[in-house]
Amino acid sequence: MTDRTAYAEAIAEVLAGDHGAKVPYPIGLQEVEVLRVVPVGSALLRITFGGPEIGQFHSYVPDEHVRLIFPSEDGVLRLPKREGAMLEWGNPRPVSREYTVRRHSVEDGELDIEFVIHPGGLASEWATSVTPGTKVHIAGPPGGVVIPETYDDYLLAGDITALPAIARWLERMPRDTTGWAFIEVAGPSEEIPLDPPAGVRVRWLHRGELAPGTSDLLEQAVREVKVAAGHRVYAWAAGEAGCLRGIRRFIRDDLGIGPKDSLIAGYWKRGVTDFDRED
Q1: Which residues touch 87 (CB under 8 Å, ≥6 apart)?
Q2: What are the residue boundaries of the FAD-binding FR-type domain, all occurrences included (predicted)?
Q3: 218/237 Cα distance (integer angstroms)
Q4: What is the pLDDT of residues 63-72, one digit of tens each?
Q5: Per-residue pLDDT tens for 94-149?
């Protein structure tokens, strides 16, 4: 049995179960090459990576994260070291930034990551200037949280940083899935094409001139959700950590959705560089 077959069987078991579970994969460290850079809406850049080591990459579910590794301020590229199925990051720790896997194709030998473009971000500035042929190291993912397909409804909510995960999730859902997806963006130019099941209602929320991470639009929209009596709902929300506090309370206290049936992740925090993801 190949590794991929074993992971597929483990994932299929969780998909048919009652609650989500993390399926671990060996944490890889690959050197990859930039193949293409394509804008997706006005706020995202999709970078497609390739190279022979892409075949060693494992990616199976929407909410997976990898780390791109960059040279330190002294210009030295420090890489983590393999320790069995794990990576040892050492001290000084290599400079890295965490991103969601948007697409991985074993057949095409490609990996897509979408970068939110914003001033002052290390990875964002790298993404806006990088050209095809550039090499970079990618570490991870360390596994993924697999969500069963047995819930009655699904509630997804996030800002632009969560959009790649939401987009991947919507296109992979069974076509008879029902639920809600709320996505906060600055305005219409940041909206992108999505492929949701017909029963999942997608609502774009326009923040306008408000700075990212300062709006309560997402929380107010989520608070409008009405769950039918007896329905089991899975809730997933991601974005700026502070903006998620009210959403977390509503999901847990008002909707009565517990930790086994939800994942609420702070992807970033205003004023904090390389924020360590908060669940």
Answers
A1: 27, 29, 80, 81, 139
A2: 27-148
A3: 10
A4: 899 999 999 9
A5: 999 999 999 999 899 999 999 999 888 899 999 999 999 999 999 999 888 999 99
Residues 151-162: tens digit of each pLDDT:
999 999 999 999
Q: Give the pairing of strands 144-146 and 21-23.
A: antiparallel
In one-letter notation, the amino acid at residue 23 is V
- Cα–Cα nearest to 107, from 46, 182, 54, 44: 54
* C-alpha R_g of the chain: 19
C-alpha span between 197 and 172 (Å, rounded):
9
Quote the tokens at residue 272. 């904090």
Question: 3-state SS string over 30-44?
Answer: EEEEEEEEEEECCCE
CA–CA dist 80, 29 (Å, integer): 8
Q: Give the pLDDT score at 2.
A: 59
Instruction: Give the whole-angstrom CA distance, residue 17 versus residue 36.
Output: 38
SS3 call for 165? helix
Residue 126, classed as helix, strand or coil, is helix
Residue 184 backbone dihedrals phi, psi, to 5 degrees: -90, 125
* Tokens 């892409």, residue located: 54
Distance CA(232)–CA(99), nearest Å, equals 30
Q: How far is the C-alpha of 114 from the C-alpha of 105, rounded, in Å?
A: 15
> What's the pTM?
0.94
Q: How many helices (H) and strands (E) does the chain have?
A: 5, 15
Hey, what are 164's tokens? 């790649």
Tokens read off for 172: 């992979």
Q: 43 and 117 in contact (C-beta within 8 Å)?
A: yes
- What stretches of 41-122 adopt beta strand conformation (E)? 44-50, 65-70, 81-83, 86-88, 95-105, 110-116
